[in-house]
Predict the structure.
Amino acid sequence: MPGHYGIAERNILSVSSPVATQVLHATGIAYAAKLRRTEQVAITYLGEGSSNQGDFHEALNFAGIHKLPVVFVVENNGYAISVPMSLQSAVEDIAVRGAGYGMPGVICDGADVLDCYRAGKEAIDRARSGVGPTLIEAKVTRMTAHSSDDQQTKYRSSEELEAEKDARSAAALPRPAAGGGDPG
Ligand SMILES: Cc1ncc(C[n+]2csc(CCOP(=O)(O)OP(=O)(O)O)c2C)c(N)n1
Ligand SMILES: [Mg+2]
């Protein structure tokens, strides 16, 4: 599929459609990096809905036991297709799950690039120094319905959609560059 590309020479693995499988792949790659002493760090991304799959929990458990150089980033947009957070998870923040696997759970603002950089850098430095994995939860706004086949007005109230409108349009608009340059 169009989004299923990888770049082998840059160590970017292909995306795949079954959600959460990549969490185990990243953990296995981090295990290999540790055994081979390459000083590489694996980083993998998933949605909050995918963090309810067994793969996520097995991967974090193994990574926590072996203190692997891996960073797990959960992009929490509040929905897994039509299923809201309240029906997916008994806890409001996915980050708290890190404690169950012996790793820090860090929340960052997924709409703030500097906050994401800070959280990512700290986690990567931690992994590279041999201390172990980190779970990052980036709180994000869902920009659109799940896909062009999905009519989200069927399961989201107009009040809820209206409340997110400012965040959606702010993220969609180019921001003026500091110093008044052309944002390009
Ligand atoms: C193993 C598996 N089960 C079900 C699906 C169907 N599916 C595709 S996306 C999705 C929801 C994912 O939600 P989330 O992880 O929160 O990611 P988001 O789309 O919100 O970014 C589901 C259930 C799938 N692709 N793979
Ligand atoms: Mg989601």
Notes: The longest helix spans residues 21-36. The helical segments are 21-36, 54-65, 85-88, 113-128, 158-163, 165-172. The pocket of magnesium ion (ligand 2) is lined by residues 47-49, 77, 79-80 (CB under 6 Å).
